[in-house]
Here is the input.
Amino acid sequence: MKLFFGSALLAGVLLAATGALAQTATPAKVADTSKGKALVDAKGMVLYTFDRDAAGKSNCNGQCAQNWPPLIAAAGASASGDWTIVTRDDGSKQWAYKGKPLYLWVKDTKPGEVTGDGVNNVWHIATP
Here is the structure.
């Protein structure tokens, strides 16, 4: 019985600590690119913003979202500071920075690439 109680207590402490970390972690970090500082995902892939998005609303769906995959927020993710979470048309959640939804570009194949910057004059690297 003591072992079970101790294990349950330890599991509870670990779960609480993990939850606290998940809530305080930001979905992106800052990295240097050939075009200056940019927000990148956990794999180092550059994130982009779309001029046709409304504040807090993604307007990139369907084929657009296949070419520009949204930076999806995991269930239970919580935002703070400049980070917010927007609900997409399909009901999924997407990270936004300073109100601008964030995306990846399928043609960027290596961390730090910025080939999506300036596409159709409406896509730009997300800057801190």
Q: What stands out?
A: Confidence is low (pLDDT under 50) at residues 1-24. Helices lie at 2-24, 63-67. Residues 6 and 117 are 53 Å apart (CA to CA).
